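Re-running the complex after MR caught last week's input typo. The corrected sequence lines follow. Everything else is unchanged.
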Amino acid sequence: MRLPGVLTEAELEPLREVFERFKRGEIPVPGRDFCDMAGGYRLAAEEFAVLNVMLPRLYLPEFRDNLYERRAAAIARQLAGTELVLDYDQLLAKRPGAEDASFAWHQDLAYWPLTPDPFTVTCWLALDNADEDNGCLRFVAGSHAEERLRRHRPLHADREESHTLVAEVDEARDRIVAAPVRRGDVLAFRERILHGSGGNRSAASWRRAYVVAFRTADTVARERALGFTHSHNDSAGARAAVAAMRPDTSL
Ligand SMILES: O=C(O)CCC(=O)C(=O)O
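Corrected-run output:
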């Protein structure tokens, strides 16, 4: 669901300033929480194609409760019909001129441990205009209603090389819908929708997005009890995705 103009240009500016401080490495982010989602953990920061900062609000506590978090919480509450809890946040930036800056097809639920109630509202805020040229999100229509999660495999040899999973998508048979957005728009989506994005072919501009995801308090408590915090530094993170990589899993 595209929600146009959730933040104005003036409201986006302070968020972009913090984003850039993370992007330049001025705010320390330990280990794998500062990584590349396309090329894997072996790349140096200056080589990242899809720069990913996991849990920025953990590493910069004054970022918490910003205007976007509050608006996104209200969106999630309205979509869920009940109060949800902010489970994790994430910053993503695709380098300009990087054909390889694609984010592999996946269902978010495949990355997470099994919990009784998987309900999630993910809010994806565009900090820049995004279209097919610079790698806007693309969705597989109807995939949220499929009975089973698609099979996922690690993008690289294993999860020690990168966090990224790839779902099976048949680009000829699946109905793929691009979701171009203007800066300030929010895309709100659920945990089973298959999505990904292509490279950034624009010459000069990064494609930046700020993600916050909301789940029930019970689900978040269960994740934490399993040691799962959405940090790529958790060993529970690698274990959680294993279920979606087995052919017999009926998630
Ligand atoms: O920003 C992107 O290209 C991918 C983001 C994504 O897949 C997500 O937030 O789940």
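None of the earlier attempt is carried over here. The chain has one domain: 2-245. The pocket of 2-oxoglutaric acid is lined by residues 92, 103, 108, 122, 124, 137, 195, 197, 209, 211 (CB under 6 Å).
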